[in-house]
Records
---
Amino acid sequence: MNTAITGVSLLLPGLTDPRGLLRPAVTDGEPVDPAALIGKKGLRYKDRATQLGLCMAKAALTDAGLLGPSGITIPGERVGVVVSTNLGNVDTVCRAVETIAKEGTAGLSPMDTPNASSNITASEIAIRFDLRGPNLTVCNGATSGLDAVRWAALTLRSGRADRMLVIGVEPENPMTRALVGGPVVDGGAALVLSRSAEADRCRAVLGPAVRAATLADGAGRLADAVPHAGAWVTDHSDVVPEFAARVDLSGWGECSGALGVMQCAAAVGWADSGRTDPVCALTGGHPGAVASAGLVLRPPGPSS
Amino acid sequence: MSYPITGVGAVASIGNTPDEIFTGLCAGRSGLGPLRGFDREKFTAQQLFEIDDRAGTGDEPGRATRFLIEAVRQAAEDAGLPEDLSGVPVLIGTGLRELRSLELWWRDGIPFDASELDFGPALRRRFGAVDTHTFANACSASLYALALGWDLLEQGDADTVIVAGCDTVTESMFGQADRVQPPPPEVRPFDRGRQGTILGEGAAAVVLRRDADPGRPVRGWLRSVAINCDARHPTAPDREGITASVRQAHRIAGADPRDIDLVVLHGTGTPINDLMETEVTASVFAAATPALTGIKSQTGHTSGSAGLMSLLVALSCIGTGRIPPVGGLVDPLPEADGLRLVRDAPLSQPVHLAQVNGFGFGGVNAVAIVAGAA
């Protein structure tokens, strides 16, 4: 069974068109303003990652044709959510211990309680759009975004859901910046995944996924799967074959858990630009990393 | 479909192995104690179910990882797996990841690398595992991970999967609870006098196989795991969502409610969870009377590991024919009239098929069905 991307959204400072990911990063973009995108209602007390995630969710569901004037247009129990984020609620957690040290727990806001749990973004998205299928938060380091796509695809294969909304999001704030030692993307991307056979608006088809102990092994297995990929989306220039284009997203800041999902969005941008050759996405594999994860994405054929 | 559980492992405040924990539950032992890792002057509540493993006074980083490693080690050994787990997917459900280490980094400057927020790097160092996955799914996390482990086997992506859950208590979560609820003196699930939950620490792990190995023991059979989301409220449970998850678990397992001998309830001791869970259980089991128990009065609410911890208890009930009582239950809530909550002393009763509930913040529900030898 093949899995297709049937909806996509991108939300970065200064960029929302996936085709823009094929160009160098925008360095002077304004921070995303969630209230301007989806209205102020319901955003109060939500952390930055959740606000950004809600915006991406709405845009991706709309792009997939799943959102009507009165909400989701297919049964909500058949739609699941996977959020990939490593840094999502780092700000809430750090702020809480700081407050407790200074003022004791009386200084805490009860409204922060849900934000102390790392699945806050996924659950808020489910609540806002009535998505009652499997609801998963993947916090898996550098490979997290592509891992989230893998688990969403598995959930479709196993029949637990008919559509999966996958979101990769990381927020910028003093805590996340200090933790990763530099600027954070403060945005991300979202995908809607469907079974290919049921996809009436295919943007790209997911090919094989690989996971390997090292970057070289992961790259090798991707190259074996698609010897003539047109582009490689990866932070590592040394694994890209000479004939292939390299798409480098590192200029957007530390993308962490958002990276793999942004890579998939870049592949959709590749297809949207009229290219028909496959794309390889590759994350992880840097020194000290657990593993590398890779994914092949193919633009839809002329017949689809 | 049904998959053998070939290895188990766990640590909690009341025991360092699944057997010790089960024995402790049956003996009425409690892991509740005074705060060990937090500054007592900062909190109204003064008790937690902590694992007493700290070397000195004050707190230290990396404890969730340490508990996880021990539970996985036990489970792998029990299943006869090699020390090298490079070919085995390891799925970890957790509520709070290594956020306690993050807290100590931010507040006290104790060195911490962002990559250690999840458990992958530690599992790679200790077991050579590379296909590791950390899922932060609140208090149903380990049963959610179990559902994905099931899918890996069913879809032919793996022959062996290790599923685990682990958590320590973070100061941020404990602090938020301290801010919003008066501290309960004890956890009394399903009692009229229940006043809330108290967090605990622990880790649990199982080895799941596509096929049992001839000549090796099977600890039980996984018959189904259902997962869904309420999509209603960030912290409060929802009747419709919970009911759907329980019915889905029965449907996947091909089980009638009358086939189920035991339900290990989520039973947090909060007024709203226990009321909702009781009402849903009464409704789903209208034509049946399984024995009902829950473990959190003695282990505390162990968050991400709680579901799998309950599942290991269910396996012990199946294996021994003994069901530990709900500790602290004196005067059951009126909605439990007609339900068979185990009280006061362990109940001796054969158990063939058991249901295990796990519900979490964000309305993430997971329900598993396990069986004894086929």
Note: Chain B has a mean pLDDT of 97.
---
Amino acid sequence: MKQASSLKDNAPDQAQTVAVSCRGITKVYGSGDNAVHALRGIDLDVQSGELLMLVGPSGCGKTTLISIMAGVLDQTAGQCLLFGNDLSQIAANAKTAYRGKTVGFVFQSLNLVPMLTAAENVAIPLLLTGVIWMDALHHAEEMLSRMGLQDRLHFYPSELSGGQLQRVAIARALVHSPRLIVCDEPTSALDNVTGQEVLEVVRSLGVAKDRAVVVVTHDARIYHFADRIAVMNDGRIERITTSPQELVTVP
Amino acid sequence: MNAIALKMLMGDRAKYVSIILGLTFASLLITQQTGIFLGIMARTFSTMSDLEIADIWVMDPMVQYLDDIYGMQDTQLYRVKGVDGVEWAVPFYKGQLRARLKDGRFQSLVVMGIDDATLIGGPPRMLEGDLADLRRTDAIIVDSIGASTRLTQREADGDRPLRIGDILEINDNRATVVGFCLVTRPFSTMPIVYMTYSRAKQYAPQERKMLPFILVKAKDGVDHRELADRIHAITGLGAYSTADFKRLTVGYYLKNTAIPLNFGTSATLGFLVGTAVAGQTFYNFTLDNLKYFATFKAMGATNGVLLRMILLQAFFVGGTGFGLGAGIASLIGFVLRKGEFAFWLPWQLLLASAAAVSLICLGVAAISIRKVIRLEAGVVFKG
């Protein structure tokens, strides 16, 4: 039976430098002859204060892995601890609330609500943690201003460029000061220059001593922003490197 | 997240308007058709509505409703007067007679014959003339709508409403108009004419028993239903409190006419069509926004939060649709209130209409909620 009251304090612990700890993670979709093994025994730690990139071919399990790390998907076997908490053992509502406070998301398709302005979109994570409307909007506007979008606060997503939209999505991921930020293909729809700008923002505003950033990407042009790069293939971690140059030569 | 829910709802203008229109349509049909039904039903006891002064109606025991008239002997009046608890009792004639107009046309009338001495049973409001003028020779008082519609006088330059002093011929008897009154619209569209009880008996075809009703006032503190039962026990006549006689009359029409079925069908159709339109559109709206609900779920929205968002959206459109529908129905009733349009909008009907629209909203929300609650937050990473 899952427990609702076993979450550890969210405050940074000097001794605790591991943000996410994955041990023997497997994930199987379906069953029997239709079973698809998305992850086959992943062992991986993400340290606080680092930007880790997950790279690899399509279908290798990158997105499944960050979904498990962020607590939006339960693994089939193994253990994944997020700041010491095994989210698969926590009751649904408690897990959702913990995830809301602890994790910031940048989705591949951004998922900005088209009926809301940039500021309103960014305010959502704060509203979900109980901040009142005016305060949430004020904080959201501050965050957008730090992103250089002070003149686009009340623009709707349809009125913003691709780079601006990506920055709004990043602002939404950062506004409530989460301790883990997961970004799924943040530059997939951007040109090189904009992609570099976006990663600079993620790097400068997202990475902090008590916070980790995990980026899933195919884009070799942004590898140099990573502290470490985990190369995945067929549901496994093939290797982990700190040198992007090594990967450029990999076929 | 309430503000976010409403902004999402109103941000999709086309769907928002469609949902509102569906619910407005449902609310309008439910309120209007039921209002007309109630209006028509209320007209079946309009005479009783105009005679609030009477506590008890006494009649032949075989009478089934207000217009089901059998005469009693005049002597019954004295028997009723003698029952303990009766403050006063007066005769009241109600029947149909035919009038011949000046140009030779015939028009059926509802004739009310009221007590000669006290004039109890007269119209609730005089518009022109005086009720006491009924004591003048051949005097009648005509309801204003009848006077200006079916009893118009045809002259060389066109029709004109009846005037004081005009003469009608009622069952070969001369009748002089001495006043006009306002009455609650009756079930039939025939003009209503007031005269004294003795004149009504004189104008009507002669029968052995000509007293249709006795109006009774109970003494202070006497229970109306108990007194009615006592009158029935002592005289053998039918006796009902005004409220019971209204119920008896409405019950007769409900059982013996297709009126409830016809209006019930319209109101039910409105409910079903409104549910279908609003339900389909609201469900599509939810489907369109499913990825945003999944996003909220990933970002920390519990099922409870999403449930509240959807319920708020459903009840917001429900409230707006109900307000518009009931408002339009009320407006139609208000604009047409002076004519023959039968429409009655008691607060209970508004409440029932609101409950019906709420039921639609709950159903509509339930389908969407089911979809959202089952949503896996993980789908947000699937693009």
Note: The domain at 49-60+91-248 of chain A is CATH 3.40.50.300 (Rossmann fold).
---
Amino acid sequence: MRETERKADSSEEEKVQGGQRELEERVLRTGFCTGCGACVNLCPYQASYRDRTVILHHCDLAQGRCFAFCPRTPADLTDMKSRFYDEADLTHELGAVKGFFIARAAQEGNRRRSQHGGVVTALMTLALREGLIDAAVLTEKGEELLPRAVTVSEPEAAAQLGGSRFVVSPTVAEFNRALRTDCRRIGVVATPCQALAIAKMRLQPLAAAESGMDRLKLVVGLFCGWALSWRPLTDILREKTDLAAVIGMDIPPSRYHTLEVYMPEETARFSLDEITPCVRESCRSCADMTAEFSDLSVGSARLPEGWEAARLWNQVIVRTKRGRDLLELARRRGVLEFREVPAGNLEKLKAASLNKKKAANRPQGQSGAGDRMGQAG
Amino acid sequence: MSMDRGQREGDEVLLMGNEAIARGALEAGVQVAAGYPGTPSSEIIETLSRFAETGKLYVEWSTNEKVAMETAAAASFAGLRSLCVMKQNGVNVASDFLLHLAGSGTRAGMILITCDDPGALSSVNEGESRHFARLMEIPLLEPADFQEAKEMTRWAFTLSEEIRNIVMVRSVTRMSHASGNVILGALPPAVRKAEFLCDGAVSDPERGPVISAPVIEKHRLQQEKIRKAAAIFEKSPFNAYSGPERPELLIITSSACRLYSLEAVSLLDAEDRVGILKLGTTWPLPPALLKRVLSTTEKILIVEEVLPFLEEQVKILAAEQVREIGVKTFYGKNDGALPMAGELNPDLAMAAVGRILGIDPPVLSSAYRKKLRAFAGLAPRREQTFCPGCPHRASYWSIREALQRDGRGGFVCGDIGCYAMASLFPAAGFYTAKTLHAMGSGTGLASGFGKLGSFGMDQPIIAVCGDSTFYHAAIPALINAVHQNANIIFIALDNNGTAMTGFQSHPGIDINAMGDASPVVDIAALCGAIGAKVVVGDPFALQETRETLNRLMEGQQGVKVLILKQSCALSPEKKGTKRYLMQVDDALCRGDACGCNRLCTRIFRCPGLLWNREKKKAQIDEVICAGCGVCAGICPAEAIRCEEAAKS
């Protein structure tokens, strides 16, 4: 992302374009690949496998959608934000902020299935039920900690898919696939990198027209500190757990310095010192904690009452009119319940987000993981 | 024209060199013939199999060359004339037995026919089998034309019985695969009865046990046999000198190189200045004959393929006789007059003779050369690749996709068969195959690689092996891998026959070389019995194959066997039939655009897929498309469609 930020400062430079070769040289080989899947399912040349994007065969086109859509190829982010968001809402730390809320799913069942407050699950279920979207691109648990991107059209199905994933899923690849189906109104739950990829897709006039990007009706962003690489993570976890039995994971606030792995009968704990080496290389240079290219973004809450109370709530940043409308609908329908935002919460979130931006711009090797991680949902 | 049962003594027939060799064996009364297929040798056993008859002639495709030689030797021990046939590197396989057989000696006439492949036209080596004759101390004959191929083969049995040892006859591709007129001789009416007489003393060559011990004594006896052969060779009609009485330059040559030499001398108009000693008995050399001919000149050029085999022998003889014949100047491989790698041809021979004699070779007119280039330009450029409908293309496609997904830099250890093409022409195997050596070596190498995990190697290791190669030499390596718990995936590319050399039978096929029903040795059962985990799949099921491979790569330590079964597209049961009629839907085909960038014709590259330059769309070549349907599974736009073909 450092490169992208720099790019924004030199708008005079010729627009950088490329194909698979450039994608491989600048993103895949350098460890910048987020595994989002933006370059997958457009053609037979890339595929998602485990949590990685792989090149299956070589493509010799000088320019390709793979390169254009990739969240780690150059883009003028400032320009992009001004196209999608109201200038007045834009903040340096968090992108567009139309509103900031503490909320949770009204139904306890929704919360139980979810990581924290269950807001994302409740909103996607509502959007499907109300017909705002007819397809939701979500992530399901999968097997052995390998989440799977899926498209669901039934609200009941969406309601089952809560919970954070600590390993990335190729959501944008699934979105690319959904674009080839006859879905009319698509909603996506996306991490920051995935949301950026989708935003870049919206700005590619040819590709957008061809693939029908106007069918994209909702992007719910997830706060994200970083994701973990599947292979090293599972190598560590296998020592203390049976991967098949894992029902969830969480990282409480930083003072615990622990990854908790939940199984039906017990909880295994791993020191973050052991886990942080598994952080994806690409996450170490990511400057977006709150999924700035979304309609609204959701993450875990911080409350004065402490973690045990906070873990049942979410923080929500509303960025667009569409996001605001959905949140208001949820309030009217009683799907979400809200509580007062404690004084200073937005400032703390801004500080945390700014920290990630700073860390991303530090030379390699110095960037520590933030105190939040995982993909809230 | 070829050999058939209707032909009679005295008929003049156009025969391929290999058929002439087979005819010579028949005329000698051969009763057991065994071989392992390998270009350029395969037609000898194929021809003989057409003459197979219970009680008269038994012919078999053995599992490998060593077993073929053992099969033939048993017949010799039991009093039947026999031969074994193999290509050059087959002699390496048989050589352990050959060493001991040469020591023990034989009874009824037994010959080893090897067909070498100078220039490696259909080999991955240009091994020189002639050196085995010297190494094993057995006589060597090299025919130089088709009639001689027949006569020499017939006489080799006589020689073998005279010296009681195996005799080697060496052909080359240009001899085995070219054709010429041959006057047929009579086929012997009588057949011998088989009985192994073995109740005598070790020293009794007629009735004793056949062993190479007592070694020193037997070794001395073997060397006596060689001296006897040399004496016989002094008068052999297969050695002939033609040319002036005192030539300015003497060419010593053998095999196909004799014709190159004749043509070179003729083109240079140097018949008055150059003499040619053509040798048919090339080891041991007859010293008196050599002495006589060497005395006639001071300059000697040796023209042979590939290594300086004759050259070195002649130099030794010349050194030994230097007081009588005087000092000579030798030209050949060692001084660079002729190349020591690759085939020779009349041009190379002409250039060498021209340089030695100071004659400028005749120059082709520029008009002729221009025409030559124009004609050469007419030939379409074709890459070497798998045939339309070939299961190997599908197998390698899945291997590629599985290895790329896995992402740990896995690779394929190649082996000998059509699928070796993946190692030779990387695009044909989608850049997966990274080693290629002897038959079965892919598995042996994989077994070795599979033990390097403790040194930090985490690349997935895949050995591929054809069905015939499996029986030939892969089994011991596979057993080793199982026993050592090597971490490998062994893929048997089972295309139901020894496809590359022309569908010869092997132990997995239910008929033998003579067309009789034969018990089948099942690859899956055998792999299971040695303790490997076995999965059987269809290579045409791309996704399933790929997923199986990825699962096996992630699986437990040890040997995982995947048998991909699908008959060769050219196999007798498939050839000319189409399962599907294939079609490209122009409306869906993306062509050059981002989205597929001609995956089918640029990467998959089945020759049955064409790129229509005008329409800028893919197209099926209906003439050569084998209708396997695999390409429908790789097209991302689903523009390639399969329609079930009507059963005919």
Note: The CA atoms of residues 69 and 614 of chain B lie 58 Å apart.
---
Amino acid sequence: MSRSDEPALELPAYARSLGIVLDRIENGLPVLAVDFGSMVEGRPQHFHGGATSGLLEVAGYAGLREALKEQRREHRLKPINITVQFLSAGKMKRTFAKARITRLGRRNANLVVEAWQDDRSRLIASAVMNILMASPDGD
Amino acid sequence: MSEPQRFDPATAAPFMLKHGHVGWLGLKYRDAGEDWVELELPWREDLLGEKSRNILASGPIISLLDMASGMAIWNTTGVFKAIATLDLRVDYQRPARAETGVIGRVECYRLTRSAAFVRGVAHDGDPADPVANMAGCFMSIAGDTRRVPE
């Protein structure tokens, strides 16, 4: 099956309504982005930590799904936990996030997800996520 | 000059939950005690995580707990001032029930001069059977950060 036959990256309803989009694919992993707006605003003129966390989490799942697709594996993904580090304030700018898969096991995956704005070396937040990979039709 | 008023979550909530990200999520105030605050995230179709199941995505649950954390801290100190989340950990215990809102209850269990430690749960009716457990750490932001030269 050629790449063009595959469905485009599918984001959950929550991600779409928050305005999260696929910005590009980089080394086989999606870079997601969200523009600043009232829907993501916390204290005036800054990203809300919850919105940043939401972007990190969606980017984590999107990255893992791509990695599993690459291995032709099908799983139902279930969250185990997430720890978010808030590193600097998210300003009124487009924010990007991309996952790094630290370990892809048979039943669980460990990811590090990073979020940045215009300077990639200055992260605004990062997250560590553990995700359970269950069989497509149950546990 | 009169004393500044003590932060009251019930009074502040309608304004605080009206705007921005939490306004968009539709967070609602439920209850508060001496060192805790309870908010609710109503179920909404466009906040779903997986298309095959009518379950809220986990992103909005983090927002719910983050906001309840902030309000629990202001409620405990009695003072509304800028704080920043340092880190937040959420352990998911089970999926939320389909077509059901989620309640976030967070307590501020320790305050130091510059840090505040919080813990809480997200549940969908029974706090003893939580959807998620949470722990976090916040710092106070000295002054108005927008005036600090870069």
Note: Strands of chain A lie at 21-26, 29-34, 76-86, 95-104, 108-116, 123-134.
